[in-house]
Design brief:
This protein has about 220 residues and is mostly helical. The chain is about 60% helix and about 0% strand. The two termini are about 25 Å apart.
Length: about 220
């Protein structure tokens, strides 16, 4: 699985993932830098650090599902994600609620190193590519996988629900692969739009399942 690096100049935003909205739940690797908003993680402009936390979690979960990581490896990687999340929270608290430029740079380096570790662990120690090509569709796959894993860890999704959502995500991944193969290795503009629509619908499904609402039911914006 290609390392996902969601860098760039995305303006910071606040966001509370669904798993943080269950006070009694014991979440696994929690994106501590994500704070309060009301939309799906892959539908809003989050800070790069917050997006990478969710995406890294999704990559670990997806590689476990694919048999590329053992349970012990996954727990170690989740622990590293949690440590970075704790560092983000501490840095923000020490700087009036925001990450300083130097803190952002240090955290990005930590997350990039962890991204490489995930790749190496999942590829039998192989060195990560120096300039991985990551499409928007692939990046969203990782974020959606992370949302499923985090909501299941928090008790907002049952194992059966998480499995069903994971199966749907796998179907979208297969469609992306087929579309890319049919178009010389990249998504055409029309295919990219169709995949984006599928992923938007799937993002809503994750929200609805995690919040116990049905399509069309009133309940605010996704988170």
């Amino acid at each position: 699985m290609t390392p996902v690096s969601l860098n760039g100049n995305t303006p910071p935003a606040t966001y509370v993932p669904a798993f943080l909205q269950n006070p009694g739940a014991q979440a696994g690797p929690v994106p501590a830098s994500a704070e309060a908003s009301g939309q799906a993680a892959d539908n809003v402009q989050l800070s790069p650090a917050a997006l990478r936390e969710v995406a890294l979690t999704g990559r670990v979960a997806a590689n476990v599902e694919a048999g590329n990581l053992t349970s012990d490896q996954a727990q170690q990687l989740y622990g590293q994600i949690s440590s970075i999340a704790s560092q983000i929270a501490a840095d923000r608290q020490a700087n009036g609620g925001k990450l300083s430029p130097s803190d952002r740079q240090a955290l990005q380096q930590s997350q990039d190193q962890l991204s490489g570790t995930i790749y190496s662990d999942a590829h039998n120690g192989a060195t990560p590519p120096s300039d991985p090509h990551v499409t928007l569709a692939s990046a969203r796959e990782a974020i959606e996988a992370g949302r499923i894993a985090l909501n299941e860890s928090a008790g907002n999704l049952s194992g059966e629900q998480a499995q069903q959502l994971g199966s749907q995500l796998g179907t979208i991944q297969q469609q992306i692969a087929a579309d890319e193969q049919a178009n010389g290795g990249t998504l055409s503009k029309a295919d990219a739009q169709a995949i984006d629509q599928l992923q938007n619908q799937f993002s809503q499904q994750i929200y609805q399942a995690a919040h116990g609402v049905t399509p069309g039911q009133a309940g605010g914006s996704p988170s």
